[in-house]
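1st attempt posting a full record on here, be nice pls
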Amino acid sequence: MRAIVYTSTGDSSVLSLVEKDTPTPGPGEVLVRVTVSGVNPTDWKARSAGRDMPFPEVTPNQDGAGVVEAIGEGVEGLRSGDRVWVFGAAHGRPTGTAQDYTVVPESRAIRLPDGVGFDVAASLGVPAVTAHRALTVHEFGPQRLAPGALKGRVVLVAGGTGAVGHAAVQLATWAGATVIATVSTEEKAQLARRAGAQHVLRYTAPDLAEQIKTLAPRGVDHVVEVSIANNATLDIDVLAHHGSIAYYADDGGESFTVPIIPSFAKNARIQGVLLYTVGETAWAVAAEDITGALEDGALPVGAEAGLPLTWFTLEQTADAHDAVEQSTTGKVLIDVSGDNR
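the predicted structure (as tokens):
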């Protein structure tokens, strides 16, 4: 089988295409024939210079979609022929989805509802699971997402057109929230509206706080934040009493300062979110809720749904990584099987 590998960290030039034997699933594992591999910032960052090699040889990319080819001993929830989406394929393991076949634990391969395309499936993973967790960390309110679960709540999504922001807009809208998204350009504003955001604002506006307060006079119930280093003061200013903030990235800086009196006066709750350390229980809950959203058709992709797709071949994996590193708008996908574009 074909596989993309690297044996030392560095820029995308360390990636190479090799031939390998098709692996065999062990106990509790499944072998997935990969049709589409999804690329995320975490993939090029794990490969970048200055990082330690976790294994002598690594195949990158956490996310993907495909068909179960074989199952290992003890696997009960999946069978050969099942269409699945895969997340965390390379988490704690040497082989991700940038190859024809990958082996993952059963819990990281989730059966797809009928009619869901592999382009949608490969766009889930890191963004959708992160967005789910970011929407359910608050102490007051539901810990699950379903239609109506966020009814009556106002959710602010900073950076509403990134992969996580896009998923957060879609999931929050599906769950009944009123969604305010912030973006940088009119082009991205159009994408955020297509994703389902009822209100879209420019985060560069000098009166952004006043605009948000006009839309949410009693305050924002929850913030999904990509740049808390830049936005902590704003977030606290527009937050409702007992509101919450979930931040999942360090865009804009490695530290942040929170206004103390306004934040404790509002009983604000601030929580970090990292997909890889939230635990198996949170992953399982996210997979169940995301499946529900898929069944309702709530997570479409493509420019018409607010998430433009940029496609590459497996041989072009280095170019795909560069595209993500260069902040290409939308989702970068690798058509591993050659049948998906």
